[in-house]
Amino acid sequence: MLMLKSTVLAIAAAGLASSAFAADHTAIRRQIAKLDPQTRLEQRCNGRAIGRIARERKGMSPEEVVAYAFADTIKSEHAMKAPGAAFRSKGKWYHLSYNCHTTDDNMSIVSFDYRIGAVVPRSEWSKHYLVP
Q1: What is the residue range of the signal peptide feature (predicted)?
Q2: Deepest of 18, 37, 43, 90, by most Cβ within 10 A of its Cβ?
């Protein structure tokens, strides 16, 4: 599972060439499809957070998201709210909140909105599952 998460995040953040990305994307989608529906939901939503932040926020290079860092996530069958998430970019963690809705198979994102908060002080990292 950890390897899958690392692979998904690395590819989402790397912006690989289209042919290499297409091959990797297909393999990753097959792996994600094997996950239980709630894990798949969280993986897809966290991946969307990384992709959107990378595209829309100049100077940020998100590499990891912890959806439950500061508050429990709220999940339904095909939606997830992460009011206390965090993401790491360039060695710093930032507060993040997002709302995510997926298709019935939890493989594609229907809607996604997010808000970035302040930098998380390093002194808080360990108690919120945030690693350097």
Answers
A1: 1-22
A2: 43
Q: SS3 helix, strand, coil % of the chain, rounded to 5?
A: 40, 30, 30
Residue 50 burial by Cβ neighbours in a 10 Å radius (0-12, 13-18, 19+): buried
pLDDT per residue as tens digits for the range 38-83: 999 999 999 999 999 999 999 999 999 999 999 999 999 999 999 9
Neighbours of 118 (CB within 10 A): 7
CB 97 within 8 A of CB 112: no
Q: What would the two tokens of residue 112 be? A: 């996604």
Alpha helix segments (H runs only) across 15-117: 18-33, 37-56
Query: Is residue 124 classed as helix, strand or coil in its secondary structure?
Result: helix
CA distance 67 to 65: 6
121: DSSP letter? P
